[in-house]
Amino acid sequence: MGSIMKFEEMVQQEKKDYNLLFSDKTAVLVGSATCGNSAGAQTAKDIIRSELSDFECEIIDVGCIGLCYAEPIVMVLKPQEPSVIYGNVTKKVARKITRSHIMQDTPLPDYALGSWGAGEIEGITPLFEQKSMRMQERRILRNCGFIDPTNIGHYLAQGGYSGFMRALQMESSEIIKEIKNSGLRGRGGAGFPTWMKWQFCLDSGKKTNYLVCNADEGDPGAFMNRSLLESDPHSVLEGILIAAKTIRAEKAYLYCRAEYPLALERLKTAIKQMKERGFLGKNIMGSEFNLEILIKEGAGAFVCGEETALLASIEGERGTPRTRPPFPTTEGLFGKPTVINNVETMASVTQVMQQGAEKYSQMGTQESKGTKTFSLVGQVKKTGLIEVPLGTTLKEVIFDIGGGILDEGEFKSVQIGGPSGGCVPVQHLDTPIDYSSLLEVGAMMGSGGLVVMDHSTCMVEVARYFLEFIQKESCGKCVPCRLGTKQMLDILTDITVGKGKKKDLDVLPELAEAVKLGSLCGLGQSAPNPILTTMCFFMEEYQSHIEEGICPAKDCKEFITYTIDSETCDGCMGCIKSCPVGAISGEKDKVHIIDTLKCVKCGTCLDLCKKKKNAVILANSC
Amino acid sequence: MQVLNKILSRYAGEKSDLVPLLQEIQSEYGYLSEELMKEVSHFTNVPESEIYGVATFYTQFRFTPKGKKHISVCTGTACHVTGAQQIIEGMERHLNIKEGETTPDEEYSLESVGCLGCCALAPAAMVNDEIKSKLSLRNIKKLFKGYKPPESSK
What we know:
The complex is a heterodimer of chains A (622) and B (154). Chain A is of the alpha/beta class and 622 residues long. Chain A contains 25 helices and 18 strands. In chain A, helix 8 (172-182) packs antiparallel against helix 9 (194-203), helix 10 crosses helix 11 (233-247) and helix 11 crosses helix 14 (343-355). The N and C termini of chain A lie far apart (80 Å). Chain B has 2 domains: 2-57; 69-144, Glutaredoxin, CATH 3.40.30.10. In chain B, strands 2-1-3-4 form a 4-stranded mixed β-sheet, covered by helices on one side. In chain B, helix 1 (2-8) packs antiparallel against helix 2 (18-29). At the A-B interface, helix 2, strand 10, strand 14 and helix 18 of A face helix 2, helix 4, helix 5, helix 6 and strand 4 of B.
């Protein structure tokens, strides 16, 4: 019992230190995850620091709060006042915030996204009372953007590792029962009940078991795991501790993509701090439990997100999938029983153990419990990372949380589930996001990427894009996937360049069915999904390409031309200067002309002129 | 070879070390040369053919040198629908090379990669380890300011 007291003492101390940080002086939190940094967070931070000179103020790098559309984001905390979150902090804005709010206590409503904490500030609506945040239920992301991910103390002060300490007092069977009661299903995409995987592993009765955390988030358009690992790595690591303790593993692997350098760096720091605090190594927190966590960097192969391919990759082989059975829970890594759980599953396990199964299962639907994070991207106003209870509809996510379509455009489709998922059209916008409802409309939950598309996106081209992706990433082990995807890609490419034939529309579904049935792993089995859903919901676009020779979205390059309307062009020379290939000619105040042979159809002139005279015309060539 | 020996000394030479070992060698040398692969084969007791089999499977590994500035353009879904292909073509024009190539002066190399996870600020690209977001044909000019690609030797 001494270990619990030791833990309680540690938490008390951290809470005290954490509160001291903010109780009597100004603090500035800078969103420094990959998205923030790429938008210029570090520049904003440097400016704030140089403007401050002697003014006492703590500047802390935090993770991503999820409002990626407004990066860089800076939060100003003043003692006894609500904090203010500022967005789009350019150099100029950073200077203004420093001089006005940080140094002189005058908040700037014009640049504020919202406030946070008790109290009111005139002109600034509290962030979590705004529609886009009110609809969300931030459990997994609760610390993201509010704590320093490189400081284990911050995590402890927020109740971190209390779930693990609880698990430490429980038998494996009790923990499994708790997870079972929570209703948690794997967040990697397929939605297999987490407790069952753990139980299978224990049932195998072998002496050595392994735990693998799958952070090979390869789905294009999805970044939930990256953001979580960069913003709150300990919440995932705590889940790993709990799972490893339950299945009696002494070695856990965390397989993370090499394309996520910052996530890897923060994980390494976090693991080092866990060791220092006694959460890793021998006799963890004075118990009999030993654990070592090893980080394995992926090497750029999408198929390694498939669990058996991932295991092969850790073993130093080519990352090709294996036939099942035997399942990894009986014969996995190095031939030993292995549980493979996704990053978000691990963070959800932490949630269950910290709050209890009952509270966790209050969220969600009958068969899909809890919350799920999604990356909301594409042609939507408020792109970013969101978390909603399962059962929330696509419409609510896109229009209430995402604020609707960019530039007041028209919604066309939302792609969900990455290359294995599908495109959901407008008539199915009321579909609730849960495991079974999405399957009914031909899509799947996947890891949680939502890519919103407007009328300017060609659905045939989208299907071609995913097939190209899958074809490149197919490992080549089984014939249906290796050759089938190639054939489907060739047909789709033909259609998008104007060489489509009528019979293609019969051959495609036939091929798709064969690939679905005959492929060895999930990559091939789900590869035809983007084709099948687009053919089901957007058949007329396929027909237009083949029969009429037009691309209705005016997206496929072979079908379109750019010209300048001689009536409206005022000869401002703007497009001439902007054209990257020098295809536009003309003199000042005289009508300009586009050389269609030189034109690469990039649309730069159109975007530019749209705001001026709107003289550039995009049309189908025929 | 001193650097290589130093890297090798940190590994036990087991097969499961292969991928991390190659990653470390590549990050030190920039690419995996024939000579280096021979040494790795010798060290791990895995035939060279098998090592090539593993290395060529993963897109991260390169067998030709890369430029001082290595640009990886993201081709994830969000980047694709916001014009990643235009960005690649624009960069190809600026550098006078094709995707997957290195400029003859070894200043720049260009490749396309799977999702970088910066989808909310698409289109994005990574220059060495730094991510650049919200790219457009107009603002990529800044990346190559003052650079004139040498005439192609081909």
